[in-house]
Design brief:
The protein is an alpha/beta fold. It is built from eleven helices and nine strands. The strands form two sheets. Strands 1-4-3-2-5-6 form a six-stranded parallel sheet, with helices on both faces. A three-stranded antiparallel sheet has the order 7-8-9, with helices on one face. Helix 7 packs across helix 8. Bound molecules: pantoate.
């Protein structure tokens, strides 16, 4: 696996592969990889000739500096996992290299005025900024994102459509821990006991259709979950239920399909 730490190395790698007519699949990440990320690597391997991952904890998408500082990191383990799963290259840039790239700011058509957009002001403009910059240098044919961040996935699709970028965006199903907790790098910040208890989040999502919302809100409160939102939204005919809140000091999000 090629570990590319500069734009020059990345440019060279991408240029060679494009010259050979290879289709590039891209999996952008913030590192501390888990099985959910690896499922994206597998999808990309199935659907592309070459898979490039990136590891970059993007400061501009954190509205809370503590959250940014506490974001878990383990580059050595990430590299092992990517290599073992046949990722062809990983781009690990420094902030200055990302900052040197052209950025965009686009109208997200209201997609950023709900849920995460309200709870994390500026978050989605930060995501758009970095994903656009990464796309401009990786030049992928396809890019893969997990449905745990379903709102983010819609926003990236919107960016690609608005800017007419030549990349296909592919969403992949959420992977869950045995108790139903959606996989996330942030789960590592939960205590062992809290992590074992968090199955109730998925249970609440699943019981939403047959239970009144205020009863679920009460249950979440009693379990010590500081609810930020529990809302239904329809994205182009896809009805989903979304939840976000803080448990054991860690902010967690999840969603399920309602159809
Ligand atoms: O989903 C993430 O991990 C991040 O938001 C992304 C897409 C890598 C951009 O920093």
């Amino acid at each position: 696996m090629n570990v590319l730490r500069s734009l020059k190395e990345l440019d060279q790698f991408v240029f060679e592969k494009k010259q050979m007519g290879k289709q590039i699949g891209f999996v952008p990440t913030m590192g501390f990889l888990h099985a959910g990320h690896i499922s994206l690597i597998h999808l990309s391997n199935q659907q592309s000739d070459i898979t490039i991952a990136s590891i970059y904890v993007n400061p501009s998408q954190f509205n809370d500096v503590n959250d940014f500082n506490k974001y878990p990191k383990n580059e050595e383990a990430d590299l092992k996992l990517l290599k073992a799963n046949f990722c062809d290259a990983v781009f690990i840039p420094e902030k200055a290299q990302i900052d040197s790239l052209q950025k965009v700011s686009i109208d997200l058509g209201g997609l950023d005025n709900i849920m995460e957009g309200i709870c994390r002001p500026g978050h989605f403009q930060g995501v758009v900024e970095v994903v656009y910059r990464l796309f401009s240098v990786v030049m992928p044919d396809k890019a893969f994102f997990g449905e745990k961040d379903f709102q983010q996935l819609q926003i990236i699709k919107k960016m690609v459509e608005t800017l007419n970028l030549p990349v296909e965006i592919i969403g992949a199903p959420i992977l869950r821990e045995p108790n139903g907790l959606a996989m996330s790098s942030r789960n590592s910040r939960l205590s062992k006991e809290a992590r074992e208890n968090t199955g109730f989040i998925y249970e609440v999502l699943k019981s939403f259709v047959k239970t009144e919302k205020h009863i679920l809100e009460k249950r979440l409160f009693e379990l010590g979950f500081k609810l930020e939102y529990l809302e239904k939204h329809d994205f182009g005919g896809q009805k989903r239920l979304f939840i976000a809140g803080v448990y054991d000091g860690v902010r967690l999000i999840d969603n399920i399909e309602l159809n």
